[in-house]
């Protein structure tokens, strides 16, 4: 009987791969193609990462530092500790600006969300025309400054076509942007007009993910459109709606350009939103340290609101199986 003696076959390829890896300098299990893909990915990511570091991370860290200093561009920053924050807490204009901003956000988010949701449902249930979606998005393609100027001319008390129509109907002219009562609601509705189409398309995209089988089964059971909306559409749209709300709330708290070109914070500080007050403190009175402290406070407020919204709306979970 002959007994064949040989080395285990599994050791030969292993040793060969290890030797090849040591010769080429490539870690075992990682091919040259994978390394090339990683380098290509890093090349594409580099511009965005550089922009993030230069235009977001560094200004944020610099602003946090300046919030603890007295700085006016003409002299070196002087460390003052918490003085700017103490001043902010005792500043009645700051609290008034914060309240005006909250009022604006409440009107803007309330009207925009309801209108965008209605438009999105109508786009899904009645028509899915690409042309109609383009028309809905048209105001969003206009900058906030241009939109503000256009509506400033339309709503001008003496010469605006809007007030000309109101006057032609036998109603007294309304000082939309010159009256303390009308100013903030008017600015909020101007921004609703500009952003509602974009918000509606975001919600429309969320509606596209809901299976049509659910609506067909509900119709077979005799459910009305209104009942299907509350029992099917709203629960399944919740994650998308939550993300849209988070985005719109953050954007609304940062309103500035529409106020700057229409009312400049007036009349009598009725539209002096927080961002405009920060801008005036920094570039009008050169109090960059105090303006940075208010910016940090706004960052903290927005972070807290975002976390609260995310948890209350359960934005990270979906009811779709």
UniProtKB/TrEMBL annotation:
Pfam families referenced in this protein's UniProt entry, alphabetically: BPD_transp_1
Keyword field contains Transport: yes
* Transmembrane parts of this sequence: 40-61, 104-123, 135-154, 182-205, 236-256, 288-308
State the UniProt keywords alphabetically.
Cell membrane, Membrane, Transmembrane, Transmembrane helix, Transport
Q: What is its main location?
A: membrane
- Location relative to the cell: Cell membrane
All copies of domain ABC transmembrane type-1, residue ranges:
98-309
Q: Which InterPro entries match?
A: ABC_transporter_permease, MetI-like, MetI-like_sf
Instruction: Note down the stretches annotated as region Disordered.
Output: 1-33
Which PROSITE patterns would you find in this protein's record?
Answer: ABC_TM1 (PS50928)
Q: How does it sit in the membrane?
A: Multi-pass membrane protein
What family does the entry list?
Answer: Belongs to the binding-protein-dependent transport system permease family.
Q: By what name is this protein known?
A: Sugar ABC transporter permease
Organism per entry: Streptomyces violaceochromogenes
């Amino acid at each position: 009987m002959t007994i064949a003696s040989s080395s285990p076959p599994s050791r030969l390829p292993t040793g060969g791969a290890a030797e090849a890896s040591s010769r080429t300098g490539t870690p075992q299990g990682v091919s040259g193609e994978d390394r090339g893909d990683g380098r290509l990915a890093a090349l594409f990511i580099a511009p965005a990462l550089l922009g993030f570091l230069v235009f977001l991370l560094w200004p944020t860290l610099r602003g946090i530092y300046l919030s603890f200093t007295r700085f006016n561009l003409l002299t070196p920053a002087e460390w003052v500790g918490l003085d700017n924050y103490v001043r902010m807490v005792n500043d009645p204009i700051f609290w008034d600006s914060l309240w005006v901003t909250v009022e604006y956000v409440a009107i803007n988010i309330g009207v925009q969300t309801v209108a965008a949701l209605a438009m999105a449902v109508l786009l899904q249930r009645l028509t899915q025309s690409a042309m109609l979606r383009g028309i809905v998005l048209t105001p969003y393609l206009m900058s906030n400054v241009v939109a503000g100027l256009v509506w400033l001319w339309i709503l001008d008390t003496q010469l605006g076509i809007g007030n000309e129509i109101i006057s032609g109907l036998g109603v007294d002219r309304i000082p939309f942007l010159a009256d303390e009562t009308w100013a903030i609601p008017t600015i909020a509705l101007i921004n609703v007009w500009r952003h509602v189409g974009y918000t509606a398309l975001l919600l429309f995209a969320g509606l596209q993910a809901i299976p049509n089988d659910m609506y067909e089964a509900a119709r077979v059971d005799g459910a009305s459109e209104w009942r299907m909306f509350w029992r099917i559409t709203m629960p399944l749209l919740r994650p998308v709606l939550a993300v849209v709300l988070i985005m719109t709330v953050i954007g609304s708290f940062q309103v500035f350009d529409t106020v700057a070109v229409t009312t400049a914070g007036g009349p009598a500080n009725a539209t002096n939103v927080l961002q405009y007050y920060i801008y005036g403190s920094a570039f009008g009175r050169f109090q960059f340290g105090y303006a940075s402290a208010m910016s940090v406070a706004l960052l903290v407020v927005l972070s807290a609101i975002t976390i609260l919204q995310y948890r209350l709306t359960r934005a990270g979970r979906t009811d779709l199986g």
